[in-house]
Design goal:
173 residues, Arc Repressor Mutant, subunit A, three-stranded antiparallel beta sheet
Length: 173
């Protein structure tokens, strides 16, 4: 039996009246929410929470990093990064050490145990990519990625403290 509260919940994809002037923004919100939920389900299979894999990806590619640089590369604030690193350290995937050149800096490095996790994370991301792409053609996938990159660039120019979006394979400054 449908309650009064559930009868007022719009169907997926139906825009609330107040969002009618922002259909793309509403669609981005819905897609991001579902993507994060599915990523969370898949990552739980390997013992991670969403965004922890992004931290590990940076460490696997770059090796030991200052915690502040890691936060910047992942796009997280200092407090969130500290909690994330603490959880990853407790799980045995990272190690924190004080910098010998700057005692104020904390360096984070992947552990040997995290190397086995890498393959699992890559598999999870491949599965997630397959679910996202669904039945889209290669041309549609390329077009979707290009549009998403343009949307990201448009938004990054409006965020005062954001860095320009980095592209996979692009050299860091």
């Amino acid at each position: 039996m449908e309650t009064e509260a559930t009868s007022q919940v719009p169907e997926t994809g139906e825009l609330p009246e107040a969002a009618r002037r922002g259909p793309i923004s509403h669609a981005i919100f819905r897609v991001a929410r579902l993507h994060r939920m599915l990523a969370g389900q898949l990552l739980r299979e390997v013992g991670l929470h969403p965004a922890q894999e992004l931290v590990m990806m940076q460490l696997w590619d770059r090796g030991r990093m200052r915690q502040t640089d890691l936060a910047r590369h992942v796009g997280a604030d200092a407090a969130t990064m500290t909690r994330t690193i603490q959880r990853l350290e407790k799980a045995g995937f990272v190690r924190r050490v004080r910098s010998t050149s700057d005692k104020r800096s904390v360096l984070v490095e992947p552990t040997a145990a995290s190397q086995a996790l890498r393959g699992q994370v890559e598999d999870v991301w491949a599965r997630l990519e397959g679910y996202v792409g669904g039945d889209l053609t290669d041309a549609e996938l390329d077009e979707a990625l290009a549009v998403l990159e343009r949307l990201e660039s448009n938004l990054a120019t409006r965020v005062t403290d954001a860095e320009p979006p980095s592209r996979p394979g692009a050299a860091d400054a």
